[in-house]
Amino acid sequence: MAARAWAPDILGEGFEQLELPLAADGEGDVVATLVRHLPRRRRFLERARPLEDVDVLYVHGWSDYFFQRRLARFWADRGARFFALDLRKYGRSLRPGQTPGYTTDLDVYDEDIAAALAAMQPSVGRRLVLLGHSTGGLTLSLWAARHPDVASALILNSPWLEFQLSGVRTAIAPVVQMQARWRPMDAAPQVDLGYYSRAQREAADPDDPVEVNPLWRPEQTMTVHAGWLSAVLAGHARVAAGLGIAAPVCVLLSARSAPPTRWSDELTRVDSVLVVDDIARASLRLGRSVTVERIEGALHDVFLSRRDAREEAYARMDRWVSGFVAG
C-alpha cells in the first residue's frame, strides 16, 4: 500500500504529516507517521544557512510522541529539513485495539525508519542527522550500528542505553526473557507516580507553551509488558558489548539524577527517569567519536527543562552541530 499524501498536522502552521503504511501484525493494520517542518525559502541575496544540505530525523521515547515545535524550529532556522517519526503504535500512529508501544524486538523499527527515509526523498549530497530521545535514542543507536555510512551524525537526548539497575541487568535479563517467551503480555508493576510529568509542567515556559495529548503521552507511563522489556534489555546488552558507530555522536544529559519516590522541587532540575552517570559511561561504548554534554538543571528530556537549562542544552547542541555537521 502506498503512503498517503502530506496533510496538515495537529501542530499547526508549518507542520505536515504523512501516514506510512507498514506490514500488518497480529493486532491488525500498522502504520508509522512522519511529521515534517521545512525551512523557509532563502530570501533574495540572503546568505546560505549552515545546514541547508541536512535532513534531521527525530525519534521519540517510550510513552511519547513528537510535539516539540521549538526543536523543529531550531533546525529549520539553520536551513535543515526537519522530520519526526511517530513509530508504530505510538502517538499519531496508534490505532484502536493496538497495545501502545508494544514490540518484542527493537529491530522491527527498521521498517518504520526505512519508510520514513524513503518519504523524506533524500538526494545526492544531502546529509542525514539522527536525533533520538530516551528509548528512541537506543533504537537509533542500534539502527546506526546496523546501517553504517547512512547517517552523518547522531545526537542523543538522554538515551536509554542502560537499565536503571545496571549492576543487576545481566542477572534479571534471563528471568525477563523467560517471562517474555511464555507470558509476553504480563504487565510490570506501575512505578511511575506521575512526578516526571508534573516536573515538566512546572518547568514549562509560559511564553512558549508545550501542549501534549494525554492519550498519547499519559500522566503515568504506558503499561510495560514483559515482551517489550525483554527487547529493551537485549538492546542494552548490545550497547554494553560495543556498537562501533562510525559517525560522530553527541549525548546530551542532565548533570544529576534523583529517584522520583516523593515530590520535591528538586525533580524539576534533575533526570528522574534514568541514572545519568550510568548512561554517560554506556555512551562511550557507542563508537569511536562520542561527546558527552552534562547540563546542570536539565530534565530527562533536556529540551523540556527550565529556560536556563533548556537554553544551555540548545547552545551545547548548536556548538556541536557547528563543529561536526556544519563544518
Question: Helix tally?
Answer: 8
Largest sheet: 9 strands, mixed
The succession of helices and strands, N to C, reads: EEEEHEHEHEHHHEHEH
Task: Output the radius of gyration.
Answer: 19 Å
Q: Helix share of residues? A: 25-40%
Q: Which class of secondary structure composition applies to the elements?
A: alpha/beta
For the secondary structure, the number of strands is 9
**Order of strands across the main sheet:** 1-2-3-5-4-6-7-8-9
The rounded distance between the terminal residues' Cα atoms is 40 Å
Shape category? globular
Per DSSP, what share of the residues sits in E-state strands of 2 or more residues? 15-25%
**Mean pLDDT metric:** 94
Low-confidence stretches: none
Tell me about this structure.
This protein has 327 residues and is an alpha/beta fold. It is 29% helix and 18% strand. It has eight helices and nine strands. It has helices at 69-76, 109-120, 135-146, 169-182, 195-203, 226-240, 276-283, 307-324; strands spanning 7-8, 16-25, 28-37, 54-59, 81-86, 127-133, 153-157, 249-254, 290-295. Strands 1-2-3-5-4-6-7-8-9 form a nine-stranded mixed beta sheet, sandwiched between helices. Strand 6 (127-133), helix 3 and strand 7 form a beta-alpha-beta unit. The radius of gyration is 19 Å and the shape is globular.
Write the layout of secondary structure elements.
Elements: E1 7-8, E2 16-25, E3 28-37, E4 54-59, H1 69-76, E5 81-86, H2 109-120, E6 127-133, H3 135-146, E7 153-157, H4 169-182, H5 195-203, H6 226-240, E8 249-254, H7 276-283, E9 290-295, H8 307-324
Parallel strand pairs: 4-5, 4-6, 6-7, 7-8, 8-9
Antiparallel strand pairs: 1-2, 2-3, 3-5
